[in-house]
Design goal:
heterooctamer, A alpha/beta (288), B alpha/beta (180), C alpha+beta (91), D alpha/beta (411), A: 288 residues, alpha/beta, globular, C: Alpha-Beta Plaits, two-stranded antiparallel sheet, 4 strands, binds thiamine diphosphate, binds iron/sulfur cluster, binds magnesium ion
């Protein structure tokens, strides 16, 4: 059995779980000297079924929407105890952090706590059975944005959390992907080396919610990046920088692996490709 | 009289659907029925259970089935992991999807054990190892609480035509080959 | 009926204790490493969601911990030399 | 119990049985086997809300997923908002209702707890919102299974609370709820409560009323009270000084207390139209004539108690259907002859040593003649099972208990 | 009443008066005139929390402004978080407490309602947070004045609730609260409740204990239970299945119920050290010997009732200080001889026809011998005034009321 | 008495109230065909004391933090009734909208309701007695960020709400000031002509909370703009445009009028000027 | 004691009814328009927080509604021709 | 014996401070006291009230003062707006800050009315029309429930030195010139 991981096996994520990969990678970068404040969600429910826990770092879960404010309290309490060296991470899914938890995150950013906020983004509420989140991509089907007679999946574009974090003028914000472990770990380490609030959003495919078979998790993650559905970049003090140049593979390659997009026609996908290209160009208009 | 059925499977294998179809079929047979999953939090791959009750009158009970009359096991590997026979009545029947014979299975029970290789049939007819629906053919055959006809009707009602067709074929095949 | 005495608030002190939950039983497929081909590069270890691969430092070979491996087969997919085989789990 | 086939009682029973069987057949014709959640969602479709709002939470998810699907498929024509939190769910429901639309939402547990502040606003603003509440335990620790702590702890909020025993009752009660809520003398929001998993995740026989009959019973929503409309500007939700505030609270309090009549009336009307009734709408008695020991409970647990009552001659069931308003008068009447009253409840009023119903029931009988033995049992917390055997045991144990005793059913 | 100067009783009374006067002088020496909010904030300083968290809401604002000022001026050395909502206030308090620090927060009304979900988590996680709750009415309509609806409606949350009559009691109770909360057998959060404006915005004489004495009574916080610490990793706030969940709820329930002893113990100890006491810590009786009519109330309204008691020979006061846990045993003892019990309460348990205390008190006496007339009066809602005259009137009116009657004091 | 105003006099704002001016200006631009969803705060408490109301348009107040979600419900209900032509405005102070109401606002933006969100920004919680908000400027003193022995007023920079709105990719976001009524009214009208979520933040000085005498409200507002403490601009489909070129008066001129800044030394103000200049330059780096 | 019957939820139908509250009584200073100088430009009207200035369309002069004017003196400050005088309110 | 005082002013004029200082001063005189504002939501400029109670024993009453023994009016324009004499006892005293004489004021009461032009004194001594504190000089003089000495002590305690000094001078001056 692996002894050095800070998350033990035996947890109950589905086979091939992207968030579980992200968690392992993240903890490899943080080391032991950290307190994790975790929002309700897949990674939380599957790792702590009393009286067992997968975690080997101090870990707290309170509710779904308040990981960021719990972290704020933990941070200040630790500082009051002279433990400024301990890292504090607010950790949770896209739903818990970017939707219902957004006020708390905004508060954390605004107050400027020395905390790293990490979202593992599996693009829906998975723990409750694949409902739409703000982070669900455009036209992806979920149980609450089903493709039906009068609808074509989610109507809105994916919520741009990094932009929102940057709008809070945090010193460091970045995206990451489980398909790029070195990039991911480097960003976590870099973030932890910076004082103040920082933000990392990790793209973490979910075989169950995206409807692909479990061994494809890393491939799907990689295709997301290479098709520009998910750009890898960081924003340091307001300066944006791509950390990986995507291969520009067609979005169709990414989509066809996943049943959540299968209702889209060729035509639809063409339109999709156009919007993705435009979006990417707008984001990286030579000002990287 | 009240009959209680438990189905064992793995998250994603459709044990819940087995039980639901069974309940619907029983209702079509003119009985009252009820079906529900084990209220757990299992993720895909983890062992799961589901239940069906069949009776002549409206079923008010809502507790888990702890003393099943019949048990169905969708995945033979479960037998090593959990006691699929737990609580079964001595006159009960356990149907296991496996290529092995009952004696090869290590199930310590007085209940009757019936085996049938549904996976094989499913792969042949459906083209994928979906065993939850075909398993009902075995139920109709060896237990008979529910008619094959009603099972087929239930499948037709609940599934898109194309998928229904294949499943019905498989159910029939399983019905055919299963024996006590 | 006796009530177990839980630590107030349900605190769990026994960290990493999910190891009591042998998720190996969930497996329908079994990854099998061809140790001849394996270069010990560690890619599979890095991507395994369940921390169920160890690289034997001396032998420089990947070893699967079947107690926990759920059989997702990611390791097989990511292995650069494709030396992990997918077998159907038989018990 | 008499076993003779010639016994008169027996014959009568048998005749009734046959009649019941025939009626049963007729009823069954229109029945289908549905998941409780699906039945709940179908009821919503029948009520034709113009706006549905939701945020997912186990075990309410299937309901809102079904509704989303119905809308996607054009089966329900409604605007649907997938909000970013339950706080917003209830807020949007308030907005939609204040703008003069029939609205629907559903939640559970943490979601209900999160809406708490808005619940009080919704009732204070007298908005006829209907919400299905899927009862589930509250954190911490986190637990997704059924008990009633969530809605019980919202009991002061000014919402009417009706607890259902079966999926069928959820359907019927949802339809009734709109009719009650929207009455101009009521104008109050209502929670239709159902046990998580036990109801929501169980497939059972349900009859869905026909749309045209529902349309007659619950016509298209045309509010006659004032709502947000640029044609007729008004101000809603003002600041109020002590005097008008207290007066409005009194009005609210009276409206809640007096809604019992409307609940009964609508329930009776429904029974006439659709042939189904649940006691008198407020409480539902089962074999409660001359029994000396009565069990009070709510929700799906009543089904279990019915089984126990059938198995044990000396106990009866009094199910509280309307928990808010609390049916003190009805309880007094129904339990006039009971010597022992056992309250089975899946909630804890922490710091009182009992569940919330315990003090309310005991207070109900405080100034009655003759002392009953009133006992409290806390059970089924966080999804713990309560079986028929348990209920029978409790009835036995109660004989040895002294008035006021409270215990927990721990296994 | 005897007017003769030679009457023995009278002499004794006079002597007591003189003694009291002397004691009074001594006490007054250390007193100052402080705004209630300031007194509350000064008490917090004396308790030396490492972390204070707050979000402003009328009429709690002065407390947190004072604390902010104390910190800005270096009078209190604490980390202070000005959060963006009360939900976060309580969440940060939970985080801070879980990380092993003594924390403080304060809120009121809508703020408390907004925290609701977190309140349950805080108690479930057994975190010894102390919160001053400034009691204020709940929306809608919006109203900023005092009643108890906010904290009463949080009565199930597993928080202990102590209601204070004066600014002095707020000071003393805040200090006691930490000692109670942090005891390893308790580990529960506590609300120190005070009436908005009536206490918070009134300047009155208060004695602040000396820091060194408080330090002795309430030593520097060194949690001996487990907390978040990379040196000793642990997991807090897990998912729990029905069995352990129900068991933990039972443990919580027992902890709340049994905290009465600790409340009394700490109160007695405090009385010994600082010379001030409030009844027995749970309830506080005034001229309650042989009086046939007793008035039950809480908070600052007790002061008004005391005036009425002094003016009217036939009534007495029993003030509930500890509302959670609810002091059933103490009430039974204190009201053994009362014929009539009048409950004056500033809250409404909508749908029960009364305030929340009404059913709880009646239940308390359900199985006592001899019938008392127990009456409920809903008063002081949304800041409506309750005067000494009102209380006297109520006592008179009560004579004509029959057991169980409830009425509202509307003016 | 003025008959055409959609807000009547007799309301109870303090003499010289900036938000009251903003409200009048806003309503002049909206016309009657509007529903206002108002958050708790000064403008709400002072305008509706039962049984009187200052409003002549349909108006609803529910709570402090939910004006945005109430508006979402109102919007969809009106649409369901076929009243797509009626404007819906979510209106509130900086506290109610940008702090405690941020999650709801983010949800509104993400879902894309056809709603105009308007913040009147008086840079603190005034209704409760001048406590800090996220929108309070750096180093301003409030009752919860007092200038004391160990502190110098608010520690954080003013929350950048327009950036946050823009990060949600709303089609239109703008700032405005009561000192520039034509600009303000034009922006409101423009916003209402665009379908989807849009955002306007109006700078509204408050004599009581900023400690200046009541007749200076408009002057203070103007100095904020001219000193670049508050830039007037709009962002249409991501394109930023200054709508008024500030006169670049020293921030000191702005500050010295207000006691909330009086604890700052010459030195402090110099530093302040530097940060304001930098900030402005960063915002408008030739890419207007 | 009689309870007034309030419209459920406290809805106020009488819009603009704060006019019953004569805030003119709050005034300590009184803005007085020098009608000779006033050009009727409307600037004061635009900025008055209390909607207490009307521009007489015919006369093209500003008129203060002293029933509501709170005396903030913003009008005087913004008037481009400085024709509004600040007087101490005398009653 | 219980004495009750009410102060009328406008939001921002410091009526609350008058009452607070009075309470503190009374306490310094060895009495018990209490002070609180009218619990309203008034904005700057709007009429406001505040109260003080003075007694020999701890004051448990928390209701508003409806029958004051003494009333102070910080702003004479209020007299036209509200009934400053409402509820005052017949033996009560009303002190008004005004340049007018009592008879010029239209106060319909049996209570004694005293006037003194505090604004003038404040402008002279403090340099601004802050009348709330100086008003206490008049109270000490004509009512005497509270000593001038204690008022001065209270001011010293509560105000920064420089401001305190000016206010004390003003108080003294007002004390000097006020007469019954
Ligand atoms: C207030 C509240 N509302 C709803 C829920 C139910 N809930 C638990 S987890 C979850 C979804 C989590 O989604 P996300 O944060 O994306 O994490 P994931 O499950 O996808 O890993 C929901 C809706 C809850 N626990 N609390
Ligand atoms: C949940 C909740 N918390 C706190 C309050 C108290 N409160 C009412 S208004 C307000 C401040 C409003 O600030 P802002 O939104 O900036 O408006 P302003 O008063 O400045 O106009 C606060 C804190 C409340 N009503 N509800
Ligand atoms: S549903 Fe998706 S995110 Fe959740 S545990 Fe399974 S694979 Fe992981
Ligand atoms: S990825 Fe392949 S080669 Fe590398 S260690 Fe694993 S099995 Fe060996
Ligand atoms: S199959 Fe999956 S769980 Fe098993 S070792 Fe490979 S990656 Fe890990
Ligand atoms: S405090 Fe400021 S914002 Fe509030 S009413 Fe007064 S001037 Fe207006
Ligand atoms: S601003 Fe001056 S000139 Fe213009 S209308 Fe007003 S008073 Fe007349
Ligand atoms: S003084 Fe102020 S309120 Fe009066 S008219 Fe002029 S701007 Fe309006
Ligand atoms: Mg997710
Ligand atoms: Mg503000």
């Amino acid at each position: 059995m692996k002894k050095d991981d800070l998350i033990a096996p035996g947890h109950r994520t589905c086979a091939g779980c992207g968030p579980a990969i992200a968690t392992r990678m993240m903890l490899r970068a943080t080391g032991k000297n950290v307190v994790l404040c975790h929002a309700t969600g897949c990674m939380e429910v599957t790792t702590t079924q009393y009286p067992t826990t997968a975690w080997k770092v101090p870990w707290i879960h309170v509710l779904f929407e308040n990981a960021n404010s719990v972290a704020s309290g933990v941070r200040e309490a630790l500082d009051a105890q002279g433990k400024e060296d301990v890292h504090v991470i607010a950790f949770g899914g896209d739903g818990g952090m970017a939707d219902i938890g957004l006020r708390a995150m905004s508060g954390l950013f605004e107050r400027g706590h020395n905390i790293l906020v990490v979202i593992y983004d599996n693009e829906a509420y998975m723990n409750t059975g694949i409902q739409r989140s703000g982070s669900t991509p455009w036209q992806a089907a979920t149980t609450t944005t089903p493709a039906g007679k009068v609808s074509k999946g989610k109507e809105q574009w994916k919520k741009d959390m990094i932009a929102i974090a940057v709008a809070h003028h945090v010193p460091y914000a970045a995206t990451a992907s489980i398909a790029f472990p070195f990039d991911l770990e480097k960003k976590i380490k870099k973030a932890l080396s910076i004082k103040g609030p920082k933000f990392i959003q990790i793209h973490t495919p979910c075989p169950v919610g995206w409807y692909y078979s479990s061994e494809k998790t890393v491939e799907v993650a990689k295709l997301a990046v290479d098709s520009k559905m998910w750009a890898l970049y960081e924003v340091e003090n307001g300066v944006k920088k791509l950390t990986y140049k995507p291969k520009e593979t067609p979005v169709a390659d990414y989509m066809k692996l996943q049943k959540r997009f299968r209702h889209l026609s060729e035509e639809d996908i063409k339109e999709y490709q156009k919007r993705v290209d435009e979006n990417f160009d707008k984001m990286f208009d030579g000002r990287q | 009289m009240l009959k209680q059925i438990r189905v064992h499977g793995r998250g994603g294998q459709g044990a819940v659907t087995s039980c639901e179809l069974l309940a619907i079929a029983a209702f079509k047979d003119g009985k009252y029925s009820q079906s529900f999953p084990f209220f757990g939090v299992a993720r895909r791959g983890a062992p799961v259970m589901a239940f069906t009750r069949i009776d002549d009158k409206f079923i008010r009970l809502r507790e888990q089935v702890t003393k099943p009359d019949y048990v169905m096991v969708l995945d033979p590997t479960l037998i090593d992991v959990i006691d699929v026979h737990e609580g079964i009545t001595d006159t009960g029947i356990i149907i296991v999807n496996t290529s092995k014979s009952p004696s090869e299975l290590n199930i310590k029970t007085k209940a009757k054990v019936v085996t049938v290789d549904i996976t094989k049939i499913s792969l042949e007819i459906i083209g994928a190892p979906f065993v939850n629906t075909p398993m009902l053919g075995a139920f109709a055959k060896v237990i008979g609480e529910v008619s094959l006809k009603s099972i087929i009707l239930a499948i037709e009602e609940k599934m898109p035509e194309k998928i229904a067709k294949k499943n019905i074929d498989a159910v029939k095949k399983v019905f055919e080959v299963t024996k006590l | 009926m006796t009530i177990e005495k839980h630590s107030p608030g349900g605190i769990i002190k026994d960290v990493g204790s999910t190891t009591s939950n042998k998720t190996g039983s969930w497996r329908t497929f079994r990854p099998v490493v061809d140790t001849d081909k394996c270069t010990g590069c560690g890619t599979c270890e890095r991507f395994c969601p369940d921390g169920s691969i160890v690289i034997d430092k001396k032998k420089r070979k990947a070893e699967v911990d079947y107690d926990y491996c759920k059989g997702c087969m990611i390791c097989a997919e990511v292995c650069p030399v494709k030396c992990i085989k997918k077998e159907i789990e038989q018990k | 119990m008499c076993r003779s086939m010639s016994c008169k009682m027996h014959k009568k029973r048998n005749r009734t049985k046959i009649i019941l069987k025939i009626r049963d057949k007729m009823v069954k014709k229109n029945m289908q086997i549905l998941e409780g959640s699906r039945a709940a969602a179908e009821a919503v479709v029948l009520c034709k809300p113009a706006l549905t709002v939701a945020y997912p939470i186990t075990p309410q998810t299937h309901i809102v997923e079904d509704i989303a699907k119905f809308i996607a498929d054009g089966k329900l024509t409604a605007k649907h908002i997938e909000v970013e939190s339950e706080f917003s769910a209830m807020s949007a429901a308030v907005g939609g209702s204040a703008a003069g639309s029939r609205v629907f939402t559903a939640t559970s547990s943490q979601g209900l707890a999160l809406m708490n502040e808005v619940l009080f606003a919704a009732s204070g603003m007298r908005l006829p919102i209907v919400m299905q509440v899927v009862n589930r335990a509250l954190s911490a620790p986190i637990n997704i299974w059924n008990d009633w702590q969530d809605s019980i702890s919202a009991r002061d909020s000014g919402w009417l609370q009706l607890y259902c025993e079966t999926a069928q009752e959820v359907v019927d009660t949802t339809i009734q709820a709109y009719k009650i809520a929207e009455d101009n003398n009521i104008l109050l929001p209502i929670m239709v409560c159902m046990d998580g998993f036990f109801i929501t995740h169980t497939l059972e026989p349900v009859e869905l009323p026909e749309q045209k009959n529902v349309d007659k019973f619950l016509p298209k929503y045309k509010p006659t009270h004032v709502f947000l409309d640029p044609e007729k500007p008004m101000t809603q939700g003002p600041f109020a000084f002590p005097k008008p505030y207290m007066e409005m609270r009194k009005q609210l309090s009276d409206a809640v207390d007096n809604s019992d009549k409307m609940i009964k009336k609508v329930h009776d009307e429904y029974a006439k139209t659709f042939g189904r009734k649940y006691g008198n709408g407020l409480i539902d008695e089962y074999k409660n004539k001359d029994k000396k020991t009565a069990i009070i409970t709510m929700g799906s647990l009543a089904g279990t108690v019915r089984e126990a009552v059938d198995a044990k001659d000396d106990i009866s069931l009094v199910r509280i259907r309307s928990y808010r308003p609390f049916p003190k008068k009805e309880l007094r009447k129904a339990l006039k002859n009971a010597d022992t009253v056992i309250i089975l409840e899946k909630n804890i009023a922490l710091g009182t040593g009992a569940g919330a119903l315990y003090d309310e029931v005991r207070s109900t009988f405080y100034d009655e003649d003759g002392k009953k033995k009133i006992l409290g049992v806390v059970c089924g917390i966080g999804g713990s099972e309560v079986t028929v055997e348990d209920v029978k045991d409790i009835a036995e144990i109660s004989k040895k208990k002294k008035n006021g005793d409270i215990w927990w059913l721990m296994k």
